[in-house]
Amino acid sequence: MWNPALDGMSASLSGGKPIEGEHPAVVMRDIAARPRPGGHVMTFANEKGGVGKSTLAFHCAIALAEAGQSVAVIDLDRRQQSLATALTNRQGTARNLKVDLPMPRFAVLDKPCGAQLSQEIARIGQRADFVIIDAPGQDSPVVRRAIGMADTLVTPVNCSYVDLDILGRLDPATLKMRAPGQFGGMVEQLRAEREACGMGSSNWAVVRNRSRPVERRHHSRVDRALESMAQRLEFQLCDGLQERVVYRELFLFGLTHMDIRHIPRLARKNYRTGNEIERLIEQIDLEFEPRPWCADPALRRGRISEKAVQAFDAIIGSYA
């Protein structure tokens, strides 16, 4: 049913342009009507795929768990399930290698709707220090709710003008933003409506991800464009993960470079990754008190054949 009040809000939020999809006011009213988690909600979202959302979300979840935080992870992509698969593989690695690893709780959203999202957060994340939501590369009602409820929104982008176009339309000569892109405009509207509803402000971090040192000259031009967008869209520009073979090697097993010291066969491996995730968490300015993490006793349960352990250990050892 047409609502003239919403029509007026649509024009004011979008500078006279009609809002595509579900109206931000409807999204935020739905979020406000449901129980909210006590912890800090971080949503990793970008309508463009292939920018490393799941990998970045995975590394942040493990880094926070390593710092002794209680972390709940919700994977919204029920088709790909990249993040949930990595965490499942992590459980298998811990069992097969008989090692203790910091482990977030996680779930896949079977039904893509706001009610189901709230239920899953209440089920596994109501008492969590951090709730991490990994959104698929598309626009949908549940993705809008994940963005709307985020205390911190993390949007990875690659060093490509194609990636930047979804944030804002650029003048090719000056590299200044002429208008918000589809995703950038949607986030801008949701953040404005969040504040209007009295739910507080949210932090938006756009993360330069999967960068390559050899593309330094191209990076400088992309950085100029991103800095122009940052002023207009009010986001924080951060650095993510560089393109490294180690991330691909370890991700298959549900591991990060932070886990190396927990695995005897990899303890001497000289992975040169720096402190990229630690630096990102510091840039985003997440507030928490580090504390010792506790191993999940459930990962020690269950019988694993010695043959399987030896085979798995041999594969892991091949990277040492």
Order of helices and strands: HHEHEHEHEHEHEEHEHEHHH
Mean pLDDT: 84
- DSSP strand (E) fraction? 5-15%
Rg, please?
Answer: 21 Å
Straight-line distance between termini? 63 Å
The CATH superfamily is P-loop containing nucleotide triphosphate hydrolases
CATH architecture: 3-Layer(aba) Sandwich
**CATH topology category name:** Rossmann fold
Number of strands: 9
Question: How do the strands and helices of this protein lay out in sequence?
Answer:
Elements: H1 4-13, H2 24-32, E1 40-44, H3 53-66, E2 71-75, H4 82-97, E3 105-108, H5 114-125, E4 130-134, H6 141-148, E5 152-157, H7 161-165, E6 168-170, E7 177-180, H8 182-196, E8 203-208, H9 216-233, E9 236-239, H10 245-251, H11 276-284, H12 306-317
Parallel strand pairs: 1-4, 1-5, 2-3, 2-4, 5-8, 8-9
Antiparallel strand pairs: 6-7
Structural summary, described in words:
- It is a single chain.
- The protein has 320 residues and is α/β, with parallel strands linked by helices.
- The chain has a single domain (20-283, 296-317), classed as P-loop containing nucleotide triphosphate hydrolases (Rossmann fold, 3-Layer(aba) Sandwich).
- The chain is built from twelve helices and nine strands.
- The chain has helices spanning 4-13, 24-32, 53-66, 82-97, 114-125, 141-148, 161-165, 182-196, 216-233, 245-251, 276-284, 306-317, and strands spanning 40-44, 71-75, 105-108, 130-134, 152-157, 168-170, 177-180, 203-208, 236-239.
- The strands form two sheets. It has a seven-stranded parallel sheet with strand order 3-2-4-1-5-8-9, sandwiched between helices. The chain has a two-stranded antiparallel ribbon with strand order 6-7.
- Helix 2 packs across helix 8 (182-196).
